[in-house]
Amino acid sequence: MLWIWIGFMVLILLLLALDLGVFHRTAHEVTVKEALSWSAVWIAVALAFGGFVYFGYEHHWMGLGTAINAVDGDAIDGRDALTKYLTGYVVEKSLSVDNIFVIATLFTFFAVPRMYQHRVLFWGILGALATRGAMIAVGATLIARYHWLLYVFGVFLIATAIKMLFLKEGHSDPGQNALVRAIRKWFPVTDRFHGEHFMVTAGSIQSHEPVTPTEIEQPDPSVARAKLGTRMLTPLALALVTVEFTDVIFAVDSIPAVFAVTADPFLVFTSNVFAMLGLRSLYFALAGMLHRFKYLKVSLAVILGLVGVKMLAAHPLKAMLGSHFNSYVLGVVLLILVLGVVASEIENRVRRT
Fold first, then answer.
1. Strand runs labelled E in the chain
2. Is 189 helix (H, G, I), strand (E, B) or coil?
3. What is the pLDDT of residue 223?
């Protein structure tokens, strides 16, 4: 089983190296067309890995699927593993849309140039994979030891769904974020961006790298005031830290949602990873038109409530719908998403007429 984990991590690191080191080596503004193309690529990679999940669990490669699943109480065969992997992937992908709203707000607040947004998201998601991996490992261990935590997660997801449906969320000021204020207090931060650097040194060539031609005539005063050799963070670093912090907050909702589908740590982690890898392209594809999907947030709340109920009533549902009831859950999740998009488009057309 250890070699499966090692092989998967090597695969992910290879994909990330190709992404940043080859295909996005030069900073540029990602167009919607390019974002949609990369979204299709990441979805195809995730589906292709689903083939490995099916055969790996069907034939129990290196012990895959031999452990009893805490949610359903059975070992997992190939079909069941594939269904749970896809359900976890769709749920995580859906909930990441809510994250995009916040990331767009952060980029606007910090005035991050579009050509550098991909770099922030790349390193932000790389850090998110590490933190989510730790959270999933802890969650899987706790669930295996304390089965009753599943019901706590279920109630938590239903409560979160109700909150999303009925409570209006205020628009917080990222500048008042305690983490941002602490960083500004303890670390020197430049007034301007310096290319794609997260950190610069006062007096170095990199610290005077212009972002636009006008900055050649207007050097950064914060760097000029700093003591020679002082290491300084840039606003790009602040944006990266807040994106990382935001993902940790969202993971508190999304990881229990995937545990509602399966307690198998490999399926939970791999579905999370592939959903996160596609978040960057999804952001550039949707960031400019999120306002059109008025009912998408309602769909996400209903999905959270659904997986919460599924976690609480897994055994009765299995008795009622059969051993492959997870296939029905996947179908309902996809239907809810489609209905949210369709309802939003219908209202948009009605408003235009």
1. 199-201, 231-233
2. strand
3. 67
